[in-house]
Amino acid sequence: MGMYFPLLWLMIMKVWVVTSTPTTLNETCFDGATATFMLSFGLYQDSCPEAEAIVFAWVERVVSEDPRMAASLLRLHFHDCFVNGCDASVLLDDTPNFVGEKTAGPNLNSLRGFEVIDSIKADIEFVCPGTVSCADILAIAARDSVLLSGGPTWEVEMGRKDGISASKTAANNNIPGPNSDVPTLVSKFQNLGLTLQDMVTLSGAHTVGKARCFTFNSRLNGGNGNTPDINVEFLQSLQQLCSVSDVNATLADLDATTPANFDNQYYLNLLAGKGLLTSDQVLATGDDQTRGIVESYIDDPTLFFESFKRSMMKMGRLAPGDDGEGGEIRRNCRVVNQLNL
Ligand code: HEM
Predict the structure, then answer these.
(1) Which residues are catalytic?
(2) Domain check: are 275 and 309 in the same one?
(3) 319 within a domain of the structure (yes/no)
(4) Residue 128 and residue 51: Cα distance in Å, rounded?
(5) CATH number of the domain where residue 260 is located
(6) pTM recorded for the entire structure
(7) Is 272 contained in some domain?
(8) Sequence-separated (6 or more) residues with CB below 8 Å from residue 246
C-alpha cells in the first residue's frame, strides 16, 4: 500500500487530467460567524492538475480489492468535518506529547483507511509537493468512494487547510452515538449548521459499510438503545451473529440487503424494521418529520442522490474555528509540519 505509482503512470495521468479538468475556476466564500472560509472549484487546476486523478486511481484500486474501503473512506471525511471543521484533524497520530482523535470513542477500533490516505498523499507530494491538503484529499476520496459504490458524483470544492491541532473531547462530543434518538441526532447536526434534512440524508451513507457487534449489542438484549420496532427475524439473525466472544471483530452490514451498493435500499430497510443501529431505525419510527423524508427517498431514488450530493457539499464546507487561517498543507497527513522535519 505504501508504494509509489510508477512515474510513467503519473505522466500518462497528467496528460489525461490536463485534457479533462474543467476550465473555469469559481470561488465560493462561506461567511462564518467571525470570518470567511474560502473554497473554490478547480483550485488545483494549475498547481496540481494530477491530484484528483491520483486520488481516484487509488480509491478505485483499494475498493476493487476491498469494497468496504469505500465506506471507510466516506466515514473518515464525516468524522473529520464534525470535529472543528474539515481540517484533517482526524488523521493526526498521537505522540508522547499530543493526544489526537484516533482514540476517541467513535473512532477507536473503528475508523479505517488511514494507510490509503497515506499512499494518496505520498503520490501527490511526489508530483506537487506542499500543494494539496490532506483535508481536501479526504473530501475527494469520499466523493470517489460514493461514485465507485454506484452512487452520485459531484464536483468537490477545494482549499481546506490542515489543522495543527486535534480534539479528542470534541470528537467524543460532536460525533453522534449509535443509540441516539432523533432529537439528539438533530441537535448534533444543528450545532454545526446542518439541518434535520441533512441528517436524514447523510445517514443514507449507511447504505454501505459495516458496524461491529460491540456497537449495536445493547439493542439486541432489550438494553439501552433497544427499539421495539425491530424486525423479529432480523433481530434473531443479529443475536446469533453477535453471540461470540469477540464483539469487536464481528461485523454486520449496515444495509443487510445491498451491502456494497450505494442506493436507497437503506431507507427501505428502515421501513421494514431492519435498521442496524438505533440511530438508523429511529429515522423511520421515532419522528414523523424524519419518516416523511425516509419515505420521499424510497419513492424517488433520484431525490436521494441529489440531496446526498448537496448535503455532502454542505458538510464539506464545515470550517475550523479559525476558518483554516492557522492551518497548513501537511507534508505527511499523520503529523503537523513542525514535527515532521
Ligand atoms: C446520523 C448519525 C450517525 C451515527 C449515529 C453514526 C454511527 C455509526 C456507527 C456507530 C458506525 C459503526 C462503527 C463501528 O461499529 O465500528 C458507523 C459506520 C459508518 N458510518 Fe455512520 N453514523 C452517522 C452518520 C454518518 C454519516 C453522516 C456518514 C457519512 C456521510 C456516515 C458514514 C458511515 C459509514 C460509511 C460507515 C461504515 C464504515 C465502515 O464500514 O468502515 N455515518 N456509523
Answers:
(1) 79
(2) yes
(3) yes
(4) 8
(5) 1.10.420.10
(6) 0.92
(7) yes
(8) none
